[in-house]
TrEMBL record:
Domain of life: Archaea
Keyword terms of this UniProt record: Membrane, Metal-binding, Transferase, Transmembrane, Transmembrane helix, Ubl conjugation pathway, Zinc, Zinc-finger
EC number: 2.3.2.27
Top EC category: transferase
Membrane topology: Multi-pass membrane protein
GO cellular component terms, semicolon-separated: membrane
Protein name: RING-type E3 ubiquitin transferase
Subcellular compartments: Membrane
Length: 282
């Protein structure tokens, strides 16, 4: 009886998560589809717009240095996971059991975030200055209010999304940039009878960058700011990430982002079906 109850709760929990995921994806799809795409020259202060173009440096020194790559970038994002073992008191058949002790082993996210410097997005008509925020990071399991796109780092309503992350896997207990940014220290090793594929405490790091010349899509509210360009202070159109409502920055085009955010309905159907099954099948 207890096993059946836990199984029903687990199925219902997966269903609820699927529905929540679908709602976030639907919100992101609606945001991208409902935001007008304009030329850089037509971006007007006060408007929420989307602009596509290529990355251009404000000046040669306006870069950030990624932790695992040599090329300078304007945005460098990371995700860090750690292989952890926990003592459990469950009867799950997937747990490791030895001498009456039960262990659960899995990869857990311990840090995610990004760093950036202001840069231009240029198209055939002109350019806009983009400020995605500096030294921004969020705690593990942070979820953007507007949803996620996959391969993304989120912070509030800010979503920085990439087509892919490159994996880097230092061995256990290395000090990393993610730790310096505030991630918790690596756990001490727990002796277990079986540890497939990874050492306890081992960390895997993934990184993605946006570099000069890369194609980029940016969505956000346009404001005015004064910056020094060629020693002359001029008024620049700026798409601001922080405190300006929803903001999306990606190396994927608008069409690809819509495809990635457009699976909300099937996920919602599956989620509702799982909840109904959990309620009625047992």
């Amino acid at each position: 009886m207890a096993y059946t109850l836990w199984l029903r709760l687990a199925i219902a929990g997966v269903g609820v998560l699927a529905v929540a995921w679908a709602l976030r994806r639907r919100a992101m799809f609606s945001l991208i589809r409902g935001t007008p795409v304009v030329d850089a020259a037509d971006a007007q202060p006060g408007d929420r717009v989307a602009v596509s173009g290529t990355v251009e440096l404000v000046d040669d020194d306006a870069v950030v240095r990624p932790e695992f790559q040599d090329d300078d970038a304007v945005v460098a994002a990371w995700r860090t996971e750690e292989f952890r073992t926990h003592r459990q008191h469950t009867d799950s058949p997937t747990d490791v059991v030895d001498d009456g002790q039960t262990f659960s082993q899995n990869w857990e996210e311990v840090s995610t975030g990004y760093r950036s410097t202001p840069f231009y997005v240029r198209d055939d008509t002109g350019r806009v200055l983009v400020d995605a925020g500096a030294n921004v990071r969020n705690e593990p399991a942070g979820v953007a209010a507007t949803g996620t796109l996959g391969n993304s780092v989120t912070d509030g309503e800010t979503v920085v999304s990439f087509s892919s992350f490159e994996a880097h896997t230092p061995k256990s207990f290395d000090v990393t940039a993610a730790e310096a940014a505030g991630a918790s220290g690596q756990q001490e090793s727990i002796e277990v009878p079986f540890s497939p594929g990874a050492e306890d405490g081992e960390r895997e790091h993934e990184e993605a960058t946006l570099e000069p010349g890369d194609d980029v899509f940016v969505l956000g509210e346009v404001t005015r700011t004064a910056v020094d360009v060629d020693t002359d202070a001029r008024s620049e159109r700026t798409v601001v990430a922080r405190d300006s409502g929803p903001f999306v920055l990606s190396d994927r085009g608008r069409t690809e982002l819509l495809v990635h955010s457009g699976f909300a309905f099937p996920a919602a159907v599956v989620g509702v079906a799982l909840v109904a099954f959990a309620a009625l099948a047992f």
